[in-house]
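It would be a great kindness if you could assist me with a short task in structural biology. I am sending you one protein, given as its amino acid sequence and as whole-number tokens for its backbone shapes. I would ask you to consider whether the tokens describe a fold that such a sequence might reasonably adopt. The full record is reproduced below for your convenience.
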Amino acid sequence: MAEKRKDKRGRVLRAGETQRKDGTYDYRYWDIHNKRRSIYAKTLDELRRKEEDVRRDLADGIDYTAGEITVAELVDRYFEIKRNVKQNTMRAYGTAIKRIHEDEFGKKRIRSVRLSDAKKWFVSLHDKGLKRNTITVVQSVVRPAFEMAVDDDIIRKNPFKFKLSDLLPDDSYKRNALSEAQQNKYLQFIRDYGNDNYYDDIVILMETGLRVSELYGLTKSDLDLKGRKIFVRRQLCRTAEQPYFICPPKTLSGIRNIPLSEAAYMAFRRVLASRPTPKVEALINGCSGFLFLDKDEKPKVAMHIENYMRCMQRKYREIYGNDMPTVTPHVLRHTFCTNMQQTGIDVKSLQYLMGHSNVSVTLDIYTHNSYESVERAFRAVVC
């Protein structure tokens, strides 16, 4: 009986496994095209994990190690082993993944994709009407997937490792903060024509800088009227597949306490006073007592106010014309940030209030300053 082959540590090697002179390991096998292939690893455990992947791919008719896997299959493979993705982020990725599967480019073999192919594909997506921000999400899906293929020694270079800003123009929608006059005019319009359905919601967004999902994630226990502050601890979200679910704030910095201005304080008092008492309080992921309820006494979500504000925008233009920029919940957040900066608050405090993880994000919003505010700041310094 032939003696079983062993490595330098005395471990029995399986068929196809070999330990090389430098101590590393390789495994030889026949691919789906009946060609001899090899995979390599520094340790035997790592090699055997790769062997399992090979066997699974061969059973599925996929030749990953030879680069015969398609772009769409590679992306699927990458997300099968990626676990640290937030639910909202995965929703955005899901749209990009679907687009890759539906696009002819997704059928290309990864070994055949060159840098020029990747760039040409993104240009074609842009020519079809996709904005650069949308294509950025697609890149954030394919780039790490191809990087995994590089790490596994399947391809030499990652063809998606380039700056999208060098390829496509910045055509993203610019959210501009409302001026003081526009803020007053908009609130008066909502008061006059909005049936008070969302007036307080809008005031609070403008006075606190909350993300709309943070606003609707507030419960009665998060409101401290005596201390005139709120505690931001969660987001309330909804999708077509999942009617309600709780998410943590967008970043760890999103967990914060926000002091209330007089206007925000009075708006919260009105919300609390007019809030109906449901027969059964909604219980979502262990949370109940949500402050903002719709006409059916169910918790509001972002979709409610977004639809309302779109409807009010159309009504405003029918009455007054087009002298008001498009107002969304995020425009109100930008407005709060700009208002705070113009009062002279220091940038680190403003970063905290906004729940930004990086101060550069806060600083970017300062670009909404008007000439009048810049002139006032200038005069205060030099005069």
Summary: Residues 180-382 form a domain with the hpI Integrase; Chain A fold (CATH 1.10.443.10).
